[in-house]
Amino acid sequence: MPREVGVLALIAFVVALGFGVVVPAIPLFARSYGVGTTAVGLAVSAFALFRFVSAFAGGALVDRLGERLVLTAGLVVVAVSTGLAALAGNFPLFVALRAVGGIGSAMFTVAALSLLLRSAPADQRGRATAAFQGGFVLGGIAGPAAGGFLAELSPRLPFFLYSGFLLAAGLVSAGLLSRAPGPPPGGRVGPGGPEGPAADGGLRAALRSRVYLAALVANLGVGWMLFGVRSSLVPLYVTEELGKSVAWAGAGLLVGSVAQAVALLRAGRLADTWGRRPALVLGTALTTSSIAALAFPPGTAVFLLSMGTLGLGASLLSSVPAALVGDVSPRQGGRAVAVFQMVADLGAVAGPLVAGWLTDRAGYQAAFGVSAGVLGLALVAALAMPRVPRRA
Predict the structure, then answer these.
(1) Is 3-176 CATH 3.40.50.1470?
(2) pLDDT-derived band of residue 179, with 50, 70 and 90 as boundaries?
């Protein structure tokens, strides 16, 4: 694969590692200002909210200025705002700096994914996105453990460390991604994407493509379940519905993360060789069935099996939808990537809120049933994709 793929995977690992380090420290640091629980939630959500609202503008910057410049600038913005947040003298300033960090994060993620999709040839796009997402997964597993220990020493220390990680990633970006590649060789699409003028038509043409719409619906499900409900509802389900300790919740989440990490590269290869459509159908079917199982009477064995199956499905949903975006819009892809990123952020915000409300009103089974329905929509969209003959 092109050198850019390995560099971007390394940057993703460093960024995810630093983010994982700082996550346990944010509530503790916010509490040090003497604020309540709601204000602590604001400090956590400000980053995600401004990341969401600024993503489309980040995509426009990518189309205008190029991926490398926007990627490096985004890393620097998050690094500087995070370092200053550790020195903030009052809570409103701390929240404002977290919001600025969300804008920088949107710039980085949109630019990095756009560059990745434009760098990788069509028949390697699934493996390229799998390697990139693998960096995030591994960094996300390793970071929180170190972050909890560092936060015990000083709530400010993780912020400084994260800022340093981001500056290092920015230097790697500026040094090793000095020249953005041209359009990838080997045609415009991969084995599962459609040939046609939509590949050069930008966002408007992409929105008329069933392939791009399927990628959006799948990424909505990823944000809803993997980024949102899995973190917010699963630990409560284990302790309140199964009657187990928090350690069991951690074990279940670990089973899912390990299954996802182990299967990720294989999932990318399937997307390239087997075809995008069958790979997406398999991924959405696995994730839908895994969450639907939790809508039935609770059981510990069912829970662990569900988390493992969810991880296997997540390995496909981490690579195939992004590869589809690259198939549809490989040249001017900044805005298309931005919208793709935004639907995942929307799912990550809406999922915990809707699932939490349903749990309070009707119980955990109803919340998981609706979440399975959201993933089921992605399965329907995958089945509606056009069939494309496999290439030799």
Answers:
(1) no
(2) low
